[in-house]
């Protein structure tokens, strides 16, 4: 489950993308000399709910059970205002390669900054087990042509 590379161009443009997210992307991209040959991708979707309510701004990460099978790619997506997400691997919302994945969730805790704006703390607002690919209870199998649907993820 380790050694995944995230493709920053696959992420939607987000004003205020957290320093933690950018640091994760930088670490994930370290050592990459070339873009791997693209594998076919298939849609991966779902909805994240906390106490029955949709949660925006959750980073949804897919960590392959067999990293070698998908060339160490880690598809990722973000929930919108309705808690809905679509995963990206090579480009915006293009899906994920075929395979089995552990699913992680991370939503940064926010605090009010001195200027009154919200800023990230670097801490997960969701239970810690959801951010760890070795402890998360969530998984998805992506199969052609339909892809994978996590449905409604209740936390």
Structure description:
There is one protein chain. This protein has 155 residues and is mainly β. It contains 1 helix and 12 strands; from the N terminus they run αββββββββββββ. Strands 2, 3, 6 and 12 form a 4-stranded mixed β-sheet that branches. Strand 9 and strand 10 form a beta hairpin. The protein is elongated and about 45 Å long. The two termini are 23 Å apart. The model is unreliable at 13-17 and 22-34 (pLDDT under 50).
Low-pLDDT windows of residues: 13-17, 22-34
How do the SSEs run, as a string of H and E? HEEEEEEEEEEEE
Largest sheet: 4 strands, mixed
Shape verdict:
elongated
Can you describe this structure in just a few lines?
It contains 1 helix and 12 strands, in the order αββββββββββββ.
Keywords for this entry:
four-stranded antiparallel beta sheet, 155 residues, mainly beta, four-stranded mixed beta sheet
